């Protein structure tokens, strides 16, 4: 089989676009939060400055191989989501990346892959509170995944496919064909789960400002912190793109892609600005109540 260099080129170009859009979007959201708090906020180009600065620094501290593989695993999870998910559904198929018939199952695996890698890395860091942070982070993320997975299963039953591209194609023909109208219960369950998946307030206690002295921004530094920042920029856009494809009709051009992913991402920022931060036990119980019940109802409706 001949290797498709054209598809590889479009995939790499798409990754570059997603990375820069993610950096710009993070700057915009930090600016919005600052203005809400009556502060000026950072300049729009600050994420690029931070990225270049961190990649230019070299560390002299050693904690073990697995500690430094944590950011690599985390970044692999974000890039894996990008590689196997279609960005745009166009006639030529240039921006579908390496998506395939069962890519929706693989996407769910990749969502958890990066989190597990960070847990393994933190476990080798030697910090006395690492185990506590790992248990709290994995507990909350598992609670988030349950209603989200139920919503995805509901879509698989509804559209009789596990292909993201086929789900997007089934939503064409007008806004009333979008999943948000044909399966509103699953959409609500998934959008509530998205609040935790993006790790913004009120579900960001694991990496909240009051825990920064013992969190990844301190434990991981220099190039390793740069890898985490790169992953965050890619991951937030790709997760928003996943929800765009599953519930909001996908996108056929980059302008539509940018508008939809911005609005989806802004949903979590808006909630985080309005509501106070939850404790871990409160957030876990919250995801296992209303979102979980909605996910179960969504499956029952289409059985």
Write the layout of secondary structure elements.
Layout (H helix, E strand, L loop, with lengths): L4 H32 L9 H11 L8 H19 L19 H21 L6 H30 L4 H7 L8 H4 L1 H14 L18 H4 L2 H26 L6 H21 L5 H8 L2 H13 L1
Helix pairs in contact: 1-10, 1-11, 2-10, 3-4, 3-10, 4-5, 5-8, 5-12, 5-13, 6-10, 8-13, 10-11
Describe the protein.
- With 303 residues, the protein is an all-alpha fold.
- The chain has one domain.
- 69% of the residues lie in helices and 0% in strands.
- The chain is built from 13 helices and no strands.
- The chain has helices at residues 5-36, 46-56, 65-83, 103-123, 130-159, 164-170, 179-182, 184-197, 216-219, 222-247, 254-274, 280-287, 290-302.
- The longest helix has 32 residues, at 5-36.
- The protein is globular, with a radius of gyration of 19 Å.
- It starts with a helix and ends with a helix.
- The mean pLDDT is 85.
